[in-house]
Amino acid sequence: MKTLEFDFLKITVTDAVDIILVALIIYYIYNLIKNTLAVNLLLGMVIILAIHWIVDALHMSLLSGILNQFMSVGIIALIVIFQPEIRRFLLLIGKNTFLQQNKAWWGYLFGSKNIEQNNLIRIKPIIDACKSMKKSRTGALIVFVKFYDDQLFANSCELIDSKISKRLLESIFQKYSPLHDGAVVIAENKIKSASCILPLTDNDKLPPQFGLRHRAGIGVSETTDAVAVIISEETGEIAYAKQGRVRMNVSFGELEKLLNKDF
């Protein structure tokens, strides 16, 4: 086996392949958890691990013993904390989308410009519907998820599973529609469900003018990797909720960029 020899290390071809494979796995995991609350959880665990090393180096026996007990159940803690991300990963494998059907992933990996253009085409009916509903001051809550969770949405929603269209979105949120209360969930380039009841945020520092739509949009962005577009029935103003934070008075240009970036 050929090796590359340096003064302090030797790298074989097998080592190089091993490093590349690990780098690809790390890169894919990063794309799986980016823009989600899992990033903050992972950062917290890294901080605890760093504190453990410092405490152990300083021979602080009591604190070191407590942290050792915590670290001894680290694998179990990882499984519990990252259960949603592990579930998404297994879903990707089970649906055979990781290597074959997920063309968007390959396009992103190899830098295809067509993916971004196609994404803008898919977003256009949503932007057009938002323009119409803003003009008519029709209240709306549209939630975008990367992975549709049947357990989270199926029990409280009406299944639609339809192609995204401007007219369908407008008809769902029309005042006298039986589905206008609740949220529309979009995933896998489809309107998956409508009239969804979502968990409300517990944040008590929100402005008093925020109604149930805003609180539900913020709430779902706190507990999942979803983002939410909220149209106020009173003002027609568009808000964008992500990771528990909300951006107010979003223009259509900004909305297009945000959706194209996040999905």
TrEMBL record:
It comes from the Bacteria. InterPro entries: C-di-AMP_synthase, CdaA, CdaA_N, DisA, DNA_integrity_DisA_N_sf, DNA_integrity_scan_DisA_N. It catalyses: 2 ATP = 3',3'-c-di-AMP + 2 diphosphate. GO terms for biological process: cAMP biosynthetic process. The keyword Transmembrane applies. The chain crosses the membrane at residues 12-30, 37-55, 61-82. Residues 83-252 form the DAC domain. Belongs to the adenylate cyclase family. DacA/CdaA subfamily. Probably a homodimer. This is Diadenylate cyclase. It comes from Pedobacter hiemivivus. The lineage of its organism: Bacteria, Pseudomonadati, Bacteroidota, Sphingobacteriia, Sphingobacteriales.
